[in-house]
């Protein structure tokens, strides 16, 4: 792999004007944002800076940039409860045993017992666990859930949570 190829594979974290990490962009997009004045470099200690050379100038691209323009917030709605979204939320893993094979959806509180078809009542389950649980609650079947079901987070909030978790683990590693 050449140095140029390695450089083009770098991703840059973009922060909002309020310093909320909102996304990752490739280095080409980051350069465009910096050159057009739509973003500014964030200087942080121990953060790499890549030097991109053109025939007429050298551009320093840091690992973190902050938008200088106010973007319109796009309306985001919680997606409907469907198989694809539930599988994505549950990382394609049975919420009872951890299997990744023969996955189905299960209502934690069965519909016949007053449960609803909602984000906090539908989980991914393998066929075996779904049949074993049957028309019972997890407590009745003695099958505890691995995680509490909930609606997906706004993508920006989910990215920010992931960013700060990664940042904290990197800090712990450096200390």
Quickly list its features.
single chain, 175 residues, alpha+beta, DNA Binding (I), subunit A, two-stranded antiparallel ribbon, 6 helices
Structural write-up:
- The chain is of the alpha+beta class and 175 residues long.
- Among the domains are: 7-68, no CATH class; 83-141, DNA Binding (I), subunit A, CATH 1.10.30.50.
- Helices cover 30% and strands 22% of the residues.
- It contains six helices and eight strands; from the N terminus they run αββαββββαββααα.
- It has helices spanning 3-8, 27-35, 83-89, 127-133, 138-141, 155-174, and strands spanning 11-15, 21-26, 39-41, 49-53, 58-62, 64-67, 103-107, 122-126.
- The strands form three sheets. A four-stranded mixed beta sheet has the order 2-1-6-3.
- The radius of gyration is 22 Å and the shape is elongated.
Quick recap:
Helix content is 30%, strand content 22%.
Radius of gyration from the alpha-carbon trace, in angstroms: 22 Å
- Average pLDDT: 85
- The N- and C-terminal alpha carbons lie at a distance of 32 Å
In total, the number of strands is: 8
Task: Write the element-wise H/E pattern from the N-terminal end onward.
Answer: HEEHEEEEHEEHHH
- The shape is elongated
Indicate the topology.
Elements (H helix, E strand, L loop, with lengths): L2 H6 L2 E5 L5 E6 H9 L3 E3 L7 E5 L4 E5 L1 E4 L15 H7 L13 E5 L14 E5 H7 L4 H4 L13 H20 L1
